[in-house]
Design brief:
Blueprint (H helix, E strand, L loop, with lengths): L7 H7 L9 E5 L6 E6 L6 E8 L4 E6 L1 H4 L9 H9 L5 E2 L4 E2 L5 E6 L2 E6 L4 E5 L5 E6 L5 E6 L2 E6 L6 E4 L6 E3 L4 H6 L6 E3 L5 E8 L5 E4 L10 E4 L9 E8 L4 E4 L8 E7 L5 E7 L2 E10 L4 E5 L2 E3 L9 E4 L12 E4 L8
Parallel strand pairs: 3-5
Antiparallel strand pairs: 1-2, 2-3, 3-4, 6-7, 7-8, 8-9, 10-11, 11-12, 12-13, 14-16, 15-16, 16-19, 17-18, 19-20, 21-22, 22-23, 23-24, 23-25, 26-27
Length: 347
Amino acid sequence: MTTEPESFPRRHARTQRFTLGAPRSFTVAPDGTRVVFLRSSSGTERAGALWVLDPADGVERPAADPVALLGGADEDLPPEERARRERTREGGAGIVGYATDAAVELASFALSGRLFTAELRAGTARELPVAGPVVDPRPSPDGRHVAYVARGALRVVGAEGGDDRALAEPEGEGITYGLAEFIAAEEMARHRGFWWAPESDRLLVARVDDTPVRRWWIADPARPEREPHHVAYPAAGTPNAEVRLFVVGLDGVRTEVSWDRARYPYLARVHWSEGVRRCSWCRRGTSAASCTWRWTRTRGRPGWCMPTKIRFGWIFSPVCRAGRPRDSSSGSRTKAARASSPWANGP
């Protein structure tokens, strides 16, 4: 019996362009003792698992296996997660993304709309009983809390599973907290909507109101019995979603970060830094601005803002490091925002 060799197009499709089975999404612990990554079990297996590599001896061990965590059940993705995977062009299954604390000792991820955490030193994983469906869970830098989005609300839970509560809840239909809107995810590669502060005591949270956005109705020709699905699609020349940014404390107290939204309606990048608390890039048409705020603890509101126009508005850096370095030539302080690694997101 002879077997026909598998054609290149079929092999290309089965392996998802020869990407399945390859390690990806690396995170290196600050002390260099762990490297965390995602990988499926073979070149044709879609379900990714969370792995930890010990650089000292080269030993790899699984930290979270989606098959074991789900008990062999099929995945049931919430609509928000389906939209996120579509916009990131994610074709995998199982664990397709994760986030860690600053020490890379605790990781969090979502499976079938459920929240899981993994102790990376011990190599164990467990589910946290929280309100779902869960989207984009992220531990605080100190590893004591995990923030996540569920039904348009930003919520936080203790790393041990206690004190699950909402920090920001939508005021009406079409409003979400902690999620990226269509334009940001599809055109600007910003796929998240909240960011932990380095001190782990508050978060920057995007509030999105897509009620002004026109709706499109999309039918499934393969399922004519189903009703068409409506999506908010900001076509060219039509209204965009209204995006605002808030600093939200763990006690629920919020302070809005203001900028000229009429001139710069797009929130393209957000990043916390130690020197200056936040740096974001905004753009409209062919103009762009770098807006930097210093957080003033005593008054509880942003202390100053420094917008700087960029000539090439269609090019903007995914990450910014903000600071106020001293100009060595004049001895005076200058406000500056410098671009960093073009393909990495901040914590």
